[in-house]
Amino acid sequence: MRLTRLAVCTAAAVMTATAGSAVMAGAASAEPLRAELHLTAPGDVGVAATSTAYKTFEITALVQRFDDGQVPEPAHEVVVTMDLAALAGVVDVALPADLCAASGTTATCSLGAVDHAGTAIPVRMRAAAGSRTDDAATLRYSVSAKDARPDPDSMTATRITVGSGPDLVVPKSSTASDVRPGDTLDLPVVIANVGDRPTRGGVSVLVRTNLTRSFGTGLVMADDFGNCRHAPLGQPEDAFVCHFATDIAPGEVWELAQPLKIEVESGATDGRVGYQADLIGGNLDDDAQLGTPGTGAPLTLVRKTSAPAAKDTRGPGTAARKLAAQEGRDVDYTDNLGGLDITMYDPEGPAPGHRGADLVAIGDTVRATVGERTKAVVGLRNEGDEAARARGTSGTGPATWVAVEIPRGVRVTARDGACRLTTSADWDDYPGGVTFGDDPQDVAPVPTGTIYYCHTRHSIEPGTSQTFSFTLVADRALDGATGLVFAASDYGVDRKGQKNNAGVLTVTAKASSGSGGSTSGGSGVVPAGGTGSLAATGAGPVRPLAAGSAACAVLGALLVAAVRRRARTGA
User: Fold this and answer.
1) 165-345: CATH architecture
2) pTM of structure
């Protein structure tokens, strides 16, 4: 239900609606916080009993995306609190001094602002002096923020177990950006043993595209190796498991003699080529037995270094298997997965290492006298690190523009030549999934006034702006009547729908001397968001209704019901 044309019955109905609005405002203040904070971490990790090297896992705080995929605003003053009491005598833990402070058995890590990409706390750990195999302890943690609530489904604890045996680890995933069809990429495979025992009988490696993702196409590997079985059970055709008759001693690092080659086909999409290391006799062998043997030259491992390898598990993890001290089992399976994340070249997107354009709306506040002309200047500014193009790559479609809502009760007598009136603004289908309404994730209320689209004449370089002028006339007294100013860009830039894309045009107009008063029902002004009936100007006379008190009460109730519903265009 849209509030676009409403006749006001009597002061009683208006008061009823106003009271209802006040109640709704109070209810809105009590609504759940606009975002949820989520913690991710492995549920189980292991450390070798006699190893002196620290291992690392991460506790990551991030703001959950909304159910419709929208990116929420960052949460602020985010704090992760850890309870270290249960770790005493089992594991030693070291936390980054620039993030965390300890008091007794409690550590407090202040992360500041956290967005949907997340902020990680590296937790370094090793077996405590005097600990024994199969000792275990649980690290518990929680998160809080000034303006977000904890996700009840977050991780709250990580169990750390002391084991004895080999502990294979691979480096965290690397990234290849700006990849184009026809490129050939290298995937180095590196395996270290940070445990306290050597492997026995060799190691196995699973390699496949999209090992941890469900998307990505057109990434092809050469895969006819004599010591590998290809397309094993449960794996796609571009997967293989290889056996290496190489034992890795504690502290040693081995790698493939030659990196694997990945060919990028035409039409390839973003994806991942991953690999997973295991001991001979582990889970990977079950898959390998049912694959097709290769016929080409075998892959080989060569020793890279014998120095102790610091462990870093910041790459994607796998579900931890039950830890044990028995021979032939890895002490910790959460860090055996690495690979290469591949991002295809996007001619419309930001260059590697850049944020792209970040558009900020420029609003204006004007004061005038009813019936007199006044000038308003609105526009946009680019606070990003790349230009926002004026036109798309085809050179035909506009790529950057400003939508300007003229407040109701105001009309336009002159405008910038780059601005045109529109009667078909679709607020339900905006670039980047931007939404308008009164829900927490919406960037602004649904506009109800007259809309002008102002297209940029040239690319907006970082740090520069472009403005558009309007000559306005207020047809009645106004007290801060507002209209939306929204800076938008298509073709891949500034797609996040950040709330700084929205600004406000505010118009205040006083009655001219000798006027017969305003049409606002006796107050002398029309408040921001006041209703009217003329689509072209947002203004119109309020026509009194002669009706009984019962009719007034009904109309008041309808007004209250109307403001409860989210405004949607076309509804």
Assistant:
1) Sandwich (2.60)
2) 0.51
